[in-house]
Amino acid sequence: SILSSPSSLLHPLFSILILSAPCFIPSPSLRSFLLLVRLRLFHIELTQLFSPLVHFVCASALTMADDTQGIVIRQSLSEKLLPGETEIGTEFGNVHLITNMSAVSGHCLLTTFRLIFRPDASKYAKQGDEIFDSSVQVPWGVIYKHEESKEPDCIRLVLECRDFRNLVLTFSPIDFKRVKKSLSKLAQVKKETKTFAFVHAPRISSDKDGWSLFDAVRDFHRQQVDMESIWQFKPLNNKHAICKDYPVNLLVPRALEEIYVLRVAEFHHAGHIPVHCWTHPGSRMVLCRGSQLNPIAGADIVNMASMVTTEVYKITQVIREVTQASNMFVLDAGDEASARDNSEDLNQEFFRYNFLNLPSMQAMRTNLHALREFCLREYPTKTKKQWHDGVRNTGWLTALSHLLEGVNEVVRAIEERNSVMVRCPTGIDFTAPIVSLAQVLLDPYYRTIKGFAVLIEKEWLYYAAPFHSYRNEDRYVTPFIIFMDGCFQILRQSPQSFEFTESLLLFLVDSLYDCRFGTFLFDSDRHRAKCRATTRTVSVWSYVMENCSEFQNTQYQEDPRVLAPIFVEANLGLWNGFYLRYACQEQNQKLIKQLRSTVRSKHTALELQGMQLPALPGHLLRHVPQLQKVDLSRNYLNRLPSGLDYLKQLGSLLLNDNMITSISEDALRCLSQSSLVELRLAGNGLMVLPTSVCDLHALQVLDLSRNSISVMLSLNELKDLRELFLTGNQLNVLPVGVEKQERLQKLHCGGNLLAGFPSVARLTALTELDFGGNLLTQAPNGLEKLVNLVALRAGPNTLQNVAGFVDQLQAYRCLESLDLQGLAISTLPESLAALAPSLQRLVLCDNSLNQIPATVLSLSKLVYLDVSNNRLDTLPLDIGLLSELRVLLAQRNNLAGTLTPAVGELRNLRKLDISENQLENLPGALGYLEKSLSDFKFDQNPLITPPKSTVSQGLPAVFAYLQALLSEPQRLYRLKVMVVGQENVGKTALVRCLSSVSKKRGKADLQTISTDGIDVSNISFPWWVDDEGALVPQGAGRRKAQIDLSVWDFAGQDKYYTTHQFFLSERAVYVLVWNLAFEEEHSRVEFWLESIHARAKNCRIIMVGTHADDPRCTQPYVEQTMQAMRAKYCKRFPNIVQMMPISCKTLLNFEELWLVFQNTCLNEKTMGELLPRSYLELEKLVVTESKRRVPPILPYAEYARLGGMCNITDEKQLRVATQLLHNLGSLLHFGHDKYLRDTVILEPEWLTEVMSSIITTKHHYVKEGLLSHQALPQIWRAPKFPPELHSMLLSLLEKFEVSHYLRQGAIEGDIYSGVSLVPSLLPDVRPPDFAERWPATVDSAVHQYGRRYELRFLPQGLFSRCIVRLLHLCEPTLFWRTGVLVELPHGDKVLVQQLGTQATGQWLDVTVRGDHAATSNLAMLLSEGLISLLEGWYRIEVHVTVPCPSCV
Predict the structure, then answer these.
(1) How many CB atoms neighbour CB 1302 within 10 A?
(2) How many angstroms separate the CA atoms of 679 and 646, rounded?
(3) Above pLDDT 70, what percent of the chain?
(4) How many whole angstroms separate alpha carbon 856 and alpha carbon 867?
(5) Residue 1013 Cα distances to 842, 990, 1215, 1291, 1373, angstroms
(6) What's the CA gap between 922 and 955, in Å, rounded?
(7) Backbone CA torsion sign across 342, 345, 347, 353
């Protein structure tokens, strides 16, 4: 009833109740009720007097409820409005904020100051999604530009803001009209008096009026400027006659006559004469600013010399005299050449010039924009290096570093008793930031909040910066951002020297953009006065002074010193708090969620590792003072987080793997107030460690590994240090006093530049010592005293007495880990065996061992042994004695032949690496390790056993093969020979001649006709083998084995290429035949080499040139041709064994060819390999079954039953056996193809007949690529192809993508009524109506999407298979041999084409046109199919591009 009664809410007694309630009412429910009352109050029209009181009480209640009970009540948007801010209409919903994570729905409110978006909390709470913890607010003044686009049911609005953020929102069309109207009226306002600042009217105390904060006379008096006798204010700029940007009164030397000032102003840009900025309180040196001299032209050049020696000299002389300076130091932001071009005399007496050669302000603006785009687009990058490189490539930090070095030059010059004048072409762009930053370094007053305000008022408003003009011309107001970033860099290095924190800098940048205050709206004092800004607007300093605590640095210590920061680029850090605050929204949400959880649970550990945070706002830590551990490892922090001083109980601070390249003394000093015992800073790029680390007296763990530290001072003050990690730095010597740290338990200093090492005799508590990776020639003295040592790393080093060093180790009865890497060890002393009871880890890599010493084999407790990169040629037979071994690393040795079977006895082995050796065979005994060995690397070995096809199937297949070897392996002397080449080059004649030579029958019958498809024949010959069946040189064995070669003669006509691809094998020798009597292009030699390379990259190739008996083939001609061919191809295709000219008629060179052919086949690694007997038994069953079955085809499930009969019951073993038989040519199975994997062809020759029956030169039933099924009885005749098989044969051809059944018009159940498309036999030319259906140009309104697949080589038959895959998805409209056009029902069209030539390059184009082009599922499926064909089947590298015009 109270909530429903406005009158009761207005009763004075009730007002007192809600005012007092939070103080004395403990009930959470009643306090929550009061919060609801608060919400009701804001919807009632209260009196002007009573409203502020209620607002204060309600706000207090909300804060207390939130702090004590975790209650979160979202305020209505109107409650947050600023004074003078009014709503534009009412709040509306159905708005979506698009982020890189998701689309967040919510409500929107438009006001005269900003656009406010509030997420729908209740909706997302139900879904469990994370949403923003507060509303998103975009002041109209921040918006630089906007773009709108129409979506199907909404309007999409993209806001590009000055403050380094982009926002994407969607609105309903009706609501967007309101937004657009506000945008056009309030965003990018040209007239400053129309901005929000002129209606913003907060109540400000009279003593906090920011407009009266600065008074030039008062500030110069503070600087102790002598305005009685040396300097004076003169109204030289009356009516702004000299310079429109300067004030009327200028501080000039009394001795300077007014006439000189007026005359010299003509020669400075916009009258920016040198003006006084600051006086050194001790030396009285003066800092001035001004512009360069204007370019002098025409008659003025004649008078320039006298001008310089009078007026300019006079001004300089007066300043020099009054400051008693020996020189005037001129810091010019430009370059010397420009100054000379302006006819300036740079040899003037009393002048010292320094030219910074800074880029133009436009270039700086470009760098800043590049930084903005990189941060928004790329953060976070995959690696820290990518981030470093990306930031550096923007050029921002490089240019900023150059400018800041100039600031240091100014400070040094003044400290050296020189007066300084800073100038730039305009007198503003660079002078304002440089002189401002110099004064921050020189004058501690300007490092206070009030002093900083005075500095900005003086250098940016009194000597005016044209903020209004900047806003219109420069989206970022770059000069001021340079100043703010420079202040951040100084504050980052000396945080305790500033009364304010980074939050003030961020607030000022926001105020620069949002037009809330009048401070940054005008071009000059005159402009400000004209608009009556001091009476009509509020100064930003009014808010700052009123809310000083928001910006106060609790660690501030007044520091009278002149600051000397390091401004080299490597020492600068990106201002993450500004540049990344809107690029890391996801990271910030996770951070807030984690902090909230920590606050509520009162956990003492804050785990923020790996969250990709660019910064940790220090003020957040004040809410978790109970923290004892903070883990910020693996983030993007570039400085020590502020606010750590709130954590008085902090014991562990982990900052590993960030980007903290420098740490200030102040930053570490603030940690001394905590009880810090652990500090980890590994992997940051630190170059120097501040001496204030010694103030951390309780420190026990200090991790500085993986940095770039070259010098460390004494650590004597750290009396309780237990663990010190210095690995991976650039230290020449260890910190003083390390050898006296008697409590030290872990000392890691490997990977440095140490040439000497202090005695460790006093470090008797050490359990871990690492001095490896240095330049030591002697081991540290006192090692024998370290009897508690558990882990020791001694290498790599160049120790002179390694044996003596190892002998010392026998005293270590507790040693568990010993690293002797890179000590040039060739043998080990027997004393090492004394470590057997404890040693578990031994590293001997990068030494000179020829064998594993017997001493090592006695270390029975070893679980880790690394002998990689030695000279081992075998592993010992006794390796099985190390029964506890879990890791064995033996890569990069000389292991050859067969791996020692004893490795199979290491049943606990988890990891084995034998890669990069010369091993040919893995023993079957390794099959015993299948269950334990999870990490097995054996690549880069010339393996024969297991076969390459088995290895390619992965580790399970390898183990299955090795286990099968354990049961009576059998040698196989069989090989496939593929004879390829163009038609009519003599392939068949060559095969017949080789067969005759092998049988010693003399000349063969050369009467041949063109091969139709593939002919398969056999060539056999005996060869010598040893007792174990291995091949030996001719005559060296006591018995012979029969060598069987299966010779496949491939037809050379183009139309057959589509089917040949199914029979090319990697387990074969290739014979490429070409006709010597013609140019090589006639035989398409390069095409055939590329085809072999695509399917069988590493197979050996014998190239044979036939018709050497032709009259054209004279000896010089043949020699020249062969030389040219070798030069052209042997380097590109290193697997070419030999090139030979021959004649089948005269048998020229046939004896030599037979020897090459014979030796090539015998030298194949697979010849005579050991195979599991069960695999060969399966082959016998396959041969038997192929004769019984018509056609010789088995479903894979039935084929698996054959495997079971041969005791191959495991699916992995069956697939290994099947792949092996496929490569042997015993059967065909394409397990990697989803269309073919369920079918096994028992007789490969039968499949060649099926395919050649359609794709043939012997009949013409296929017309224009179309096969009428009525002709099938004529093509497939009984008994080989009975009618009942015709339907199955058609399906088989479709499975192999040779043809496609066009069912349109066919009678269901009658296969002879249909038609099949055979793509490889289609006509080459496009259909006549192609141009009409696919115009060359399209209207701009038509969407077009495309992909281009660029190939180094395009295999024949690829496009035919691509066409068939497309036809599985839809029916074509037009088709030809190199293209298909499909018109879809909804009007879209898809065009697929093969373009280019082998000489100019070839590619495939997929283009979609229509309203749904960009989202076409067909285009996506087709693209996936193409990639799977190219990379999966043909194994060709593809370069995919998006052709213009199209976009995604």
Answers:
(1) 16
(2) 17
(3) 86
(4) 11
(5) 61, 17, 28, 20, 31
(6) 13
(7) negative
